[in-house]
Amino acid sequence: MKKMKKVNLKKVAAFMMAATLGVSTLSIAGCGSSAAEDEQVIIYSNADDEAIEAMKHALDANGYEGQYVIQTFGTSELGGKLLAEGTNIEADMVTMSTFYVDSAQEQNNMFLDLDFEVNTLDEFPSYAAPITAQEGTIIVNTEMMEENNLPMPTSLKDLADPVYEGYISVTDVSSSSTAWLLIQGLISEYGEEGAKEVLTDIYKNAGDHIEESGSGPLKKVRAGEVAIGFGLRQQAVADKAEGLPIDYVDPLEGNFTLTESVAVIDKGDETNAKAMEMAQCIIENGREELQSYYPVALYEGESTDTENLSGNPKVFSEPLTVELLKEHQALSEECK
Amino acid sequence: MKHKNKELKLIFAVMLVFFLAFLAVPVIRLLIKSFILDGSTGFTLANYQSVFTSKGFLGALGNSFLISSVSAVITTIIAFILAYTIHYTNVPKWFKNLIGKATVIPMLLPTITYGFAIIYSFGKQGLLTKLFGRQLFNIYGFNGLLLGYIIYTLPVSFMLINNTMGYIDKKFMVVSRLMGDSSFQNFRITILRPLLGTLASSFIQTFFLCFTDFGIPASVGGKFEVVASVLYTQMLGSVPNFGNGAVVALVMLIPSVVSITVLHVLEKYNVRYNKISAIELEKSPVRDAVFGVLSGALLISVLSIFAVIFVVPFVQDWPYRINFTLEHVQAVFEDGNLLRVYANSLMVAAITALIGSLMAYAGALITARSTVNQKLKNIIESIALITNTIPGMVIGLAYLFSFSGTSLQNTFAIIIICNTIHFFSTPYLMMKNSLSKMNASWETTAMLMGDNWLKTIIRVVTPNALSTLIEVFSYYFVNSMVTVSAVIFIAGTRTMVITTKIKELQYYNKFNEVFVLSLLILFTNILCKYIFQKLADRSQRKEKTKR
Question: In this predicted structure, what is the pLDDT of residue A230?
Answer without folding.
Answer: 95
